[in-house]
User: What shape does this take?
Amino acid sequence: MARKNKKLGQYFAELMVVIVGITIAFALESYSENVKQDEKEAQYLRALQADLANDISELKEHIDTTNQLISLTGDMFKFIYMKAPVDSFSRRHVTATYSTPYFSGNNGTYLSMINSGDLNLLSDFELRQALVKYYTLSYSDLRRADKFVDELVSNSMYPYILKNVAFHPIEDRIEDSTPLKTNEAINLMGSYFNMLANRNEKYDELVDVCKALDKLISSKL
Assistant: This one.
């Protein structure tokens, strides 16, 4: 009987060793998996910050360019209402619309996370919500503003300039300012001026959103 109890004791001891070993193995595997997920999350966060930095850089560049276009368009109105001589209207005053910038955005990391299902790797719910809002609502809002400007330029301003405005073959000016003084031209320029000003406000707002989002991400690293 004593021998039997001894064997049972050895059996349970060996079983406990096996159970403890399996438990430790699972714990180590789980720890290793958590470490990998944490590392992957950190990689995504750094990549998102890089995308946001590129967005800020692009937006600021577009803001500066747009301010120049607004200034040139404002000059046009000033020349028209002051009845300035035709040589006041340089080529760049009329062709400024050709260099109108549009936001392209840098959402590669976000799209990769969405397509792979890795957005859920981000442990912070507030951050996930902020990213979805930024890359869906904010991007869509800005692209609508871009679309309005692009449609005005492509469908109305380009055709009007090509049809009505003659550029001097040698000098940096137009040959006749009369086409710029029609109601149609003034309305087009006024719409362009206002749309650019409104869009620049959206660009400025998005820069602030980018900075706030970058700060939120930094707090998670």
